[in-house]
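so my prof wants the structure for this chain in the tokens format not the other one, which i didnt know existed until like an hour ago. anyway here's the sequence
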Amino acid sequence: MLPPAHEVSAESLADMVCEMEAAVVENLQPAVQHYRQLDVGDLWLETLKEEDRPPWDASSTLRILSSHRSTYWHIIPRALEAEVKSLERFFGARAGGRALSLHALASNASSLLDLLMAFSTAKPSSDPPTSDPSDIPDYISIDQASSALHAGVQRIKGLLDTLPPA
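here's what i got, hopefully its the right format
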């Protein structure tokens, strides 16, 4: 459980970032994987460099979004592209041990919520899959992806509710 907003310590901030990372991995990654699988079918793993293959951490998941723009153009509005890159830098800086401010956490949590919302409100593609889902390794269905996204939206809303007002 996260602490009340008026008791945000450095340890609590670190816990909140871990919660955000978990939301990317557990809630956003299934959707990223689903749409990539739809886009390239059973070749989806072969189109990735070895270091870009799942399982992904938070930063890698966001890097996949940035580097495979053609897959996600219909989901991520152009205005949100900069936020995706900012989130990738945020998680990368955390791995580098940089200090964290409450403002940075709140801003990036809000960006993550925007990204989860963009995916959760995306219209499923009307194009038929390029391959039979049973032929796709580790296939993620739209129902699995949608369920994970919905849980992620609630998760990040809950985190934002614990932060003091800006």
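also thought this was worth mentioning. The radius of gyration is 16 Å.
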